[in-house]
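ARCHIVE CARD
Drawer: 12
Card no.: 0347
Subject: one protein chain, sequence and derived structure
Cross-reference: see card 0346
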Amino acid sequence: MEENVVLEVAIEEAGYEAGDKRIAGITFEVRRGQLLGLIGPNGAGKSTTIKTLLGLLKHAKAKVTIGGENSSCAYVPEQPVFYEDLTLWEHLDLAAAAYGMPYESFQATAERLLAQFGMAHVRDDLPAGFSKGMKQKMMLMLGFLVQPDIYIVDEPFIGLDPRATKDFLRLLEEERLRGAGVLMSTHVLDTAEKICDSFVLISGGRMSAAGSLAEIRTAAGLAEGALFDCFDVLT
């Protein structure tokens, strides 16, 4: 594995039950500072790919390497996951403790994230009462808190208002400049086209194309085509 590669994925096949092959032949890598978009419509196999590389599927033939020996990974799921009886602040505190983050560093970073996402007023509230967008903001804050080597983000834009989306993208850019790699699954192709360095297009559980926007356009035969149009041709 090259030194600047933070995620290397080679999935021969994977599914949820024995003999149930949902995805196959998916290979890619993410480098430091790179934002790779895992692109495809709902049901294409994006979430199955992410679950496979996170080791959540028993029926998988895959090799996944995350950075070096001390590399860390943050996963931001599509569906928010939380403890019913812990406040937002307690969720942040628990995540920091799990990663061995010094309390002073945690406190300063958590306060900054609460302010950036406009969530300071609910820091002591239970997330069960949050809106879908607020729950998604909490998931993003938990990811950004620990500043890992690689972010794996599944459909981050669902439920986010324009301001929260802008805050998320700004923080993501800061993390990329720090050297973190990002794998982002999304079907919001117009946004992906603007922010991703390269793409893996998935359709029907298979890779249909991969590369930069220029390479995707060449593969689709559309010299000035939008990502949406290229995807339409290639799938």
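Annotation on reverse: The chain has two domains: 1-72+148-235, 80-146. The radius of gyration is 18 Å.
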